[in-house]
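Deliverable D2.4 — example input (structure tokens):
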């Protein structure tokens, strides 16, 4: 599978996708227009081993709801990601059985290097 979960209104996501090599055969899913399903999230979890790794603690709602003061479980992270697209750390790039989550420079560089050798 070659897929990117992103927000088309997010300039950072667009910039990252543009910087990726060899993405012609990727499926792009705008998670605002086409919310992720339980099955898709579980597939991401199988690759990361953690819902927390998929969860964005930089989301506006995370701050607004005072979630940093909550003791969230893996199941909580899963439910919040399914509840609102903003809780998924973006973009999520999946290439076969490899996953790259979020927009940290280290992660983006790793994705570019991986795709360059693909």
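Example output (designed residues):
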């Amino acid at each position: 599978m070659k897929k990117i979960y992103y927000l088309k209104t997010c300039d950072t996501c667009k910039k990252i996708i543009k910087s990726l090599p060899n993405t012609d055969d990727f499926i792009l899913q705008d998670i605002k227009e086409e919310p992720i399903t339980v099955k898709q999230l579980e597939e991401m979890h199988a690759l990361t081993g953690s819902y927390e790794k998929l969860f964005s603690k930089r989301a506006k709602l995370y701050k607004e709801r005072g979630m940093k003061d909550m003791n969230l479980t893996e199941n909580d992270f899963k439910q919040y990601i399914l509840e609102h697209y903003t809780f998924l750390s973006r973009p999520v790039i999946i290439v076969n059985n490899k996953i790259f989550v979020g927009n940290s420079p280290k992660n983006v560089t790793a994705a570019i290097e991986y795709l360059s050798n693909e």
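The chain has a mean pLDDT of 96.
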